[in-house]
Amino acid sequence: MIETAGSASAARTSAALLRRGGRLVLTGIPAAGAEGLDPTDLVVRQIEVQTVFGAPPAAWSHAVRVFDAGLLSLRPLITHELPLTDFATAIELVGSGDPGVGKVLLRPQGPN
């Protein structure tokens, strides 16, 4: 199972849903000081936990080329598009917990 939300509770739920000997991959980063996974549960159920953070520079270059070539689109992930001046609104949207909020794109306003 792969958990990407960066939520400590989502990581705990993901671990609880695994069968004995399952594997959990954590890619999100929870808030500092968040309650962690239960180590006793991990050991008894033989759960393997792997984390992923960052990528080598070549991976980022490859990703940019793929998007630049039009092979992938981020557009379906964007649910809201706001001017940069609405930064506070964007933060409220992202932190709202609303499942209808995906990525919020902030656009700088050009010269008039």
Lateral strand order in the biggest sheet: 1-2-3
The share of residues in extended strands comes to 15-25%
Instruction: Please identify the structural class as seen in this structure.
Output: alpha/beta
Shape, per Cα inertia axes:
globular
Tally of extended strands?
A: 5
Residue ranges: pLDDT <50 for 5 or more in a row? Answer: none
The biggest beta sheet reads: 3 strands, parallel
Overall tally of domains: 2
Please state the average pLDDT score.
88
Number of helices: 4
How much helix is in the residues?
A: 25-40%
Explain how this protein is built.
The chain is α/β, with parallel strands linked by helices. It folds into 2 domains: 2-51, no CATH class; 57-107, no CATH class. The chain is built from 4 helices and 5 strands, in the order E-H-E-H-E-H-E-H-E. It has helices spanning 8-17, 39-44, 57-68, 87-95; strands at residues 2-3, 23-26, 48-51, 78-83, 103-107. Strands 1-2-3 form a 3-stranded parallel beta sheet, with helices on one face. Strands 4-5 form a two-stranded parallel sheet. Helix 1 links the parallel strand 1 and strand 2 (23-26). The longest helix is centred in the middle third of the chain and has 12 residues, at 57-68. 5% of the residues are buried. The mean pLDDT is 88.
